[in-house]
Design goal:
alpha/beta; single chain
Length: 286
């Protein structure tokens, strides 16, 4: 169900706050994340058919992926616009672009529903775990389609079913249970909003894209210990951070300790923790 305008505004405002607050953590863990997930950026760029000279739109680019990967593929004659709701995340994306020597990457702070470009401004669009946070993602993708040349390609990623995404499911399930919270309804905006091939394909179809294909991939995170995993979640997981901040009260440290215990139980001890996570990638044609 599409949320009302006031509800959507509140969701976006909360996401803005939460992602700004988590930006420092994403910066600290960016190398770790890219070791695990760089192949997802590469596949998105490949499926979107980004070529030298391409004009690419990255929706909800976060700290710059797959925008930076697309910029390398588009080359010096291309143009990539990285958009995101969080100014802090985009600031780090700018830093990464400078360090990488990329000069064809532009940045725009805006939520997906507020983007405004002339028709046929881009040859390709991508979104890595981004558009799935938009409360009216179908309408946002309809807008994105209008910015694309006819026949242009789009590729977006989501996470798979919760039980197959333990790096998210473990902390979220543990926290909601400990704090007595009601889990978000199926399809609610967030990292687990489009967890099946059918739901992700339906999102692109609702945006007006055709020839939609969904494929499955894997992202593996390797942690030194359950405590190392909790450090990671504490730094980058904006939804979990917000739940504990808003609902744990004086028991915040206890809530984080509960995540460490859950991770230890999942791994069978306090040694290294390897979490394999299902990823869905959908692509289609404007």
């Amino acid at each position: 169900m599409t949320p009302g305008a006031s509800d959507a505004h509140e969701v976006r405002a909360a996401q803005h706050r939460n992602w700004d607050a988590a930006a420092a953590g994403w910066k600290a863990w960016s190398a770790f994340n890219e070791r695990a997930a760089a192949h997802i950026s590469a596949r998105l760029v490949e499926l979107a058919e980004v070529r030298p000279g391409s004009r690419v739109l990255d929706v909800a680019a976060g700290y710059g992926e797959p925008a930076l990967t697309a910029a390398w593929a588009a080359g010096p004659g291309g143009r990539v616009v990285a958009t995101d709701i969080s100014a802090e995340m985009l600031d780090f994306a700018r830093e990464r672009a400078v360090v990488s020597g990329i000069t064809t990457l532009e940045f725009l702070q805006a939520d997906a529903a507020s983007l405004a470009f002339a028709p046929a401004s881009f040859d390709a669009a991508v979104s890595r775990w981004g558009i799935i946070f938009e409360p009216d993602a179908e309408a946002a993708l309809q807008r994105v389609r209008g910015f694309l040349e006819p026949g242009a390609r789009i590729a977006i990623s989501s996470w798979g079913p919760a039980e197959r995404v333990p790096f998210l499911w473990l902390p979220m399930a543990t926290t909601t249970a400990r704090l007595g919270l009601t889990p978000p309804p199926s399809g609610a905006p967030g990292p687990l909003s489009r967890t099946t091939p059918a739901s992700l394909a339906a999102l692109l179809n609702a945006g007006g894209f055709g020839d939609v294909v969904v494929e499955e991939h894997e992202v593996v995170y390797a942690f030194d210990s359950p405590a190392h995993f909790t450090d990671y979640v504490r730094a980058i997981a904006a939804p979990v951070r917000a739940m504990i901040r808003d609902h744990a009260g004086a028991d915040r440290e206890g809530a984080w300790d509960a995540i460490t215990r859950a991770a230890a139980e999942h791994s069978g001890g306090n040694g290294p923790l390897r979490l394999s996570n299902a990823v869905l990638i959908a692509s289609g044609t404007a």
